[in-house]
Design a protein that fits this description.
Elements: E1 2-14, E2 21-31, E3 36-42, H1 43-56, H2 78-96, H3 99-102, H4 105-109
Antiparallel strand pairs: 1-2, 2-3
Length: about 110
């Protein structure tokens, strides 16, 4: 159902905890019928998606790429975010362009 996926820039958001900041990623999906879907997701939501897919589709584990690594400090620096964006885009593209994975309820709820 997806024909193209792009992750744009992220927005740095301040959470409710003291000094808690995180990136929210803009995901743009073009559907095979010419429609567009726009999502905003945190890294943790990509991580949760991957974990659910690995558990539910063990026969397709080689088709589910690993996510870019986590980093405790410096995870909001521009060079790190550029690399993370590329890794997240590769991951979500592989998932959404895979006919088995993309039609799962797990992905549709994402």
């Amino acid at each position: 159902w997806a024909s193209d996926v792009r992750i744009g820039d992220c927005t740095i958001v301040t959470g409710s905890g003291a000094g808690q900041k995180f990136a929210v990623w803009s995901i743009n999906i073009e559907t095979s019928k010419g429609g567009h879907i726009h999502l905003l997701k945190r890294y943790s939501e990509f991580d949760e998606l991957r974990n659910k897919l690995v558990q539910s589709y063990p026969d397709h584990i080689t088709e589910i790429p690993k996510l870019p690594p986590k980093k405790a400090f410096g995870n909001l620096k521009n060079d790190f975010l550029v690399k993370r964006r590329k890794g997240l885009e590769f991951f979500i593209s592989c998932v959404l362009l895979n006919p088995v994975l993309s039609n799962s309820d797990i992905v549709k709820r994402f």
